[in-house]
Amino acid sequence: MVETGSDRPIEGLEALKAPRRSEAQRAATNARILASAELPLARRRQPTSSLDVLAAWGRRGLVAASIALAILAGSLQPWRAWQQEPSQPVVLEEVIGAAGEPEGVPALLVAYSEPDLDAVAAAALLERNGNRSVIPENVEQR
Amino acid sequence: MAAESESLSPVSDEPQLVARARRGDREAFAALVERYADQAFAVAYGFLQHVEDSEDLVHDAFIRALERIDSLQPGSSFGAWFYRLLVNTALNRRKYLARRRMEDVPVTAAGGASPSLDSERAELRARLAWALGKLPSELETLVILHDLEGFTHPEIARVLEIPEGTCRSHLSRARRMLRDLLKEYQPHG
């Protein structure tokens, strides 16, 4: 095909052509490319089942849910603080001290099993009787 | 002559090579590199006019192609897809290098031409590189692919995903603009 006028390429444009490279230069470039490609190629060789894909998405889902929960918890914190009265810290010494006073807490009870009906009844009688023994003294003497 | 070569002519084993490279086959990927690296270097040099920068660009384009090879449609030409990626990377890289060089040491319009070139040749290179750089990037790409590297119009149409007619008309326009630019070129302008 004959090219005329503006259809002709610009004269001298070949001055911008790439210089000829030696075989060693070409080989070095290709080797560098292949060395960098090792890792992405190795990743592609790993078998991926549909379960792996689901697990990968699941992990992302868990991370996203955790982040969402953390943000939600963070955003609710000021609301909770505003709703609640500031609680007074309870000091153990105060509780123990109160146990010694007659009108204070009579005792700190810790039980590992359900309350015994007899013990509850006895405690109730004691309280009603002003912490005095409900058994008549003469009975003890007998 | 540009129209004679067929840089992207279909090679029968290419779909298999791409499929194997997708599965991480080193030999298949090496075959693709061997097939396209030389021409890719020439195209890269057309944009950057610097040997080391062009080698870096080809390297980066191949690694990027490997990372994105899953997006290549089955049955599509690897070559056309790869050159499209290379051209886009080259245009971005040149912008980056131009910024970096402006911050460092000012260089000639040729962008780092070899000092061993005689002054007349260096002057011609500077003129052409300056004028080429003034063209809009799509017109510049056409000149580099067709007039410099010998791609055919059908090949360029596949690489740039434009109609062949557009390719021809844009090339004529690019050459006209280049001629006008070369007339107004001032050596240190």
Mean pLDDT, all residues of chain A: 76
**What's the SSE pattern of chain B?**
HHHHHHHH
- End-to-end separation of chain A: 141 Å
Give the number of DSSP strands of chain B: 0
What structural category arises from helix and sheet content of chain B?
A: mainly alpha
Shape of chain A: rod-shaped
Report what the structure shows.
The complex is a heterodimer of chains A (142) and B (189). Chain A is mainly alpha-helical and 142 residues long. Chain A is 58% helix and 0% strand. Chain A is built from five helices and no strands. In chain B, helix 1 crosses helix 2 and helix 2 packs across helix 3. Chain B has a single domain, classed as RNA polymerase sigma factor, region 2, helix turn helix motif (Rna Polymerase Sigma Factor, Chain: A, Orthogonal Bundle). Helices cover 69% and strands 0% of the residues of chain B. Chain B is mainly alpha-helical. The interface between A and B is large, with 31 and 46 residues.
Summarize the SSE layout with pairings:
The complex is a heterodimer of chains A (142) and B (189).
Chain A: H1 23-45, H2 50-83, H3 92-100, H4 117-128, H5 137-141
Chain B: H1 14-22, H2 26-48, H3 51-67, H4 78-103, H5 119-134, H6 137-148, H7 153-160, H8 164-183
Helix pairs in contact in B: 1-2, 2-3, 2-4, 3-4, 4-7, 5-8, 6-8, 7-8
